[in-house]
Fold these 2 entries.
Entry 1:
Amino acid sequence: MVRFENVTFEYIRRDEEGNVDSITTALDELSLHIKKGEFIAVLGSNGSGKSTFARHINALLKPTEGKVVVAGYDTTDDDNILEIRQRAGMVFQNPDNQIVAETVEEDVAFGPENMGIPTDEMQKRVDEALKKVGLYKKKLESPNRLSGGQKQRVAIAGILAMKPDCIIFDEPTAMLDPGGRRMIVETAHELNKKDGITIILITHNMEETVGADRIIVMEKGRIALEGTPRQVFSKGEETLKKYGMEVPVITALAQKIGLDGCILTREEFVDAYVKALE
Ligand SMILES: Nc1ncnc2c1ncn2[C@@H]1O[C@H](COP(=O)(O)OP(=O)(O)O)[C@@H](O)[C@H]1O
Ligand SMILES: [Mg+2]
């Protein structure tokens, strides 16, 4: 679905005369393959290159060196951009910046409208997408009146209406309350399981990564650590700390009371606890 081949990206700052002022290497020979249907969580401290990575997937940025291929389309070819943007949608951190229309349904229709989808087909897609994110009843309301979490779900519906293969979430929960967060992560998992949509979820919240197929930890524009949640969270406190990570709360609690293995979910906790009692 997504392939990065030796991708380097440099942000070049220039002074008023246009001379190069500074160069930041945000991606450093990054190579990576994400399979169709995978659920990937991306972690890493601030400035490690996560957003730069995300923006390469839907061709908002293009590699300085190397190559990014999305659903078979090379992002450096301008002729591919519409196709890529339709297949790989992106949800950003700030829900307020993503609203473009007066009503929820118009907002969701914005993307497909620009793709030239016929009106009746579009209405069908908009309704379907709103039902998927649980906001069908709000379709005639103003998006400005919704909660942050609901706005994020409107943004997701706007992407769904374009029938994407892949959705990239760049810290979508950072500005939400716990309830809103949970909803967004649950929606992402549901879209992954039921519709086979490839998910790339960038987050700072360890709890949000435990259900992923694979965790990628970035540092200085490279992959520092990679594996299943269990593999990654078994690395030990020191290693995790180095990359600005900690184990999820439930894992820490299990360790504290001496339960065996690397426990990541409530179910695992209960099972291990019952076993320990026996
Ligand atoms: N628009 C920009 N201009 C210059 N440097 C940038 C820009 N955006 C990000 N950077 C730099 O690129 C590096 C990676 O940033 P970013 O991809 O935003 O990391 P993250 O999302 O992990 O916090 C950082 O050193 C950051 O300061
Ligand atoms: Mg970022």
Entry 2:
Amino acid sequence: MQIKNITIIGSGTLGIRIGLQAAISGYQVIFYDISEPILDQAKIVMDKIMRQLIKGNLLTEEMKAAALSRMSYTTDLKSALTDCDFISESVTEELSIKEKAWKQIGELAPAKTIFTTNTSYLLPSQLATISDRPEKFCAFHFHDVFYARVVDIMPHPTTDASLIPLLQELGKSLNQVPVIVKKESPGYIFNFMLMALLGAAGRLKTKDIASMEDIDRSWMVNFHMPTGPFGIIDNIGLDTAWHVVKERDDVPSQSFAKLLKEYIDAGKLGEKTGEGFYKYPKPAYRDVDFLKG
Ligand SMILES: NC(=O)c1ccc[n+]([C@@H]2O[C@H](COP(=O)([O-])OP(=O)(O)OC[C@H]3O[C@@H](n4cnc5c(N)ncnc54)[C@H](O)[C@@H]3O)[C@@H](O)[C@H]2O)c1
């Protein structure tokens, strides 16, 4: 089947990026979210990302204009799905919210539509049945889309096998490197490894073994990385990280979830709100003196 029309369900941090890349790659993209103010905010963030991409020579003004002409926004799910070939769902990382979204999608999407979720840690089999099209359902999980370009393809036991090569081709057309997760596994490949790092950083901090800055410094200096674990969480979003960590019942994860919740309750969700563990747009770890200790 030929994919032309892509619908993004959930136009937050990741939905915006996936949809923008899809529009840049020549697809017609509809962004859906639950309210107009959220979509207005998405347009502001979209503009900011495009400016960064132009600055980094990853996008030209001509490409930007062409991408903009292929994008539209709506809060009406029915119209978002009318002629949809492919869904990329990036709603809040909470099972009950995703279940509600997929139930509605299953009722409204045309028979041709391929269903994919961008969930970070849930399994596609937790959502496939409620979508009412388990054979058309697969996880298609992005990282940051423009700089971290791996896309995980993770089927569940009854995903139609013919979807896999199609998703590999789609991933390549979206300038991603597709990788296949052969068996359902929470966190796919990269996130499974990342979780171990972030969990360890959280443990060092909540047990007051080291400061956040020194934890980040250790990682950044030794691995020549631009960001440490707490900077990474700021980028992911503290709320998204919290949704994952709070589900773990071991004591270190619960302590880390408590710390994240304190920041969230203070409105510090990370880069997207201007403050998380660090303040943006100029976080301390980007200061030239930060790595000197
Ligand atoms: N943030 C990351 O770095 C990252 C990376 C890879 C994957 N993901 C995954 O992407 C998904 C979204 O994460 P995010 O960071 O973009 O979250 P976000 O909070 O920035 O955005 C979520 C969006 O979903 C919307 N939403 C909630 N209920 C909805 C519904 N019923 N229908 C449509 N939209 C709805 C919210 O209004 C919000 O705009 C999660 O599953 C997350 O695990 C996130």
